[in-house]
Amino acid sequence: MKTISAAITAVGGYVPEYVLTNKILETMVDTSDEWITTRTGIKERRILKEEGAGTSFLAIKAAKDLLAKSNTDPAEIDMVILATATPDMPVAATGVYVATQIGAVNAFSYDLVAACSSFLYGMSTAARYVESGKYKKVLLIGADKMSSIIDYTDRATCIIFGDGAGAVLFEPNTDGLGVQDEILRSDGQGRPFLNIEAGGSILPASAETVANKQHFVNQEGKTVFKFAVSNMADVCEKLMKENQLESDDVNWLVPHQANKRIIDATSKRMGLPDEKVMMNIHKYGNTTSGTLPLCLVDYEKQLNKGDNLIFASFGGGFTWGAVYLKWAYDAK
C-alpha cells in the first residue's frame, strides 16, 4: 500500500476592491509613502468596506473562487478549516457558517486561531486529516478582516495590515507530492508584545476598554521584528538541512507577508535569489492568515509539478514555523 500524502490541488483568493494607498494614509496619520515603503515594502493594502461584512465574506469569496476554478462540487468536501485571527463573532465558529454558505453540506468545520501563523498551522492540520485516509477533500481557508481591529490613528499598526483571503484544497496523493515535512514552534513569552488587550476572558469588553482603545492590535514593533527575523530564518534553514535541500533544490519560498525586511533576511539565510521568493506585500500589506494562500494565487501560473516550496510564517503569541511541500500540478 502506497503512502498517502496531502497535496494542494487547487487555490483561490479574494481581496476587496477598495485600495488604501500610502498617499491616503499620509492624510490620516503622521507618516509618508517613503517611510512606509523603506521600512515595510508596502505601497497599498485592500480594505473591506461593505457594511455588515466580516471575515466570512472574504472567506466565502475565496472559497467560491477555488470551487469555480477547479470545478469542485462543494458537496464532496469533507472538512473546512478556517484559519483566522478575526472571526465574525465569539463562540459561533465562522468556519461553520462559511461551509454552509458555500454548499459544503457534508463537511464539518471549525476555526483555527494562531495569529499570523494560523494558515501555516492549518496546513499541518489539514495534512494530518488527509494522511489518515478518512478524508479526501479538505478545504483550508486563510481569511482576515484586519481593518476591524486596527486603530487608524496609530501609525505603528495602521500602515501594515490589509484585508484578504485565500483558499487551498488538500487531497490525497500517492506519488510523493504534497506536504513533506514541517517545523512548528510557539513561545508564550511573546504574548505581551503583540496582542489585543481587551475582549477576552481576562478583560471583557466594557465602556472603559472601548474608550481606552484596548480592542485594537497592540504591537511592540522592534521586539516582534527581532524575533520574527531570527525565528523564521532559523526554522527554514533547519527544515532545509533536515531534508537535505540545498538552495538550488528550493524552487520557491512562500513567506508570510509581514515586512519585506523580514522576508529578505529569511531568503538570504536560505541562499535564495529574489526571483525564488513570492512577494505581494507591496499591494496587499499584511493580510495575516491570508498572506500565504494569496501568494499561491498570485504565483500559481509560475508553479510546476514537483516544485519544492518552503512556507514560513511568524505571528503573535509567539507562533512560527515552516512547512516543506512538493507542488502537485502544472500551471494551467
Question: How is this structure best summarized?
Answer:
With 332 residues, this protein is an alpha/beta fold. It has helices at residues 22-26, 33-40, 55-70, 94-101, 118-131, 155-158, 207-211, 221-242, 260-270, 281-284, 291-299, and strands at residues 5-14, 18-21, 44-47, 79-83, 108-112, 138-145, 163-173, 178-186, 194-195, 218-219, 252-255, 308-315, 319-326. It contains eleven helices and 13 strands.
Descriptive notes:
The protein is an alpha/beta fold and 332 residues long. It folds into two domains: 5-176, Thiolase/Chalcone synthase (Peroxisomal Thiolase, Chain A, domain 1, 3-Layer(aba) Sandwich); 179-326, Thiolase/Chalcone synthase (Peroxisomal Thiolase, Chain A, domain 1). Helix content is 32%, strand content 24%. The protein contains eleven helices and 13 strands. The protein has helices spanning 22-26, 33-40, 55-70, 94-101, 118-131, 155-158, 207-211, 221-242, 260-270, 281-284, 291-299, and strands at 5-14, 18-21, 44-47, 79-83, 108-112, 138-145, 163-173, 178-186, 194-195, 218-219, 252-255, 308-315, 319-326. It has a five-stranded mixed β-sheet, with helices on both faces. It has a four-stranded mixed β-sheet with strand order 8-13-12-11, sandwiched between helices. A two-stranded antiparallel ribbon has the order 2-3. Strand 12 and strand 13 (319-326) form a beta hairpin. Helix 3 crosses helix 4 and helix 8 (221-242) runs parallel beside helix 9 (260-270). It is globular and about 60 Å long. The model has no long low-confidence stretch (mean pLDDT 97).
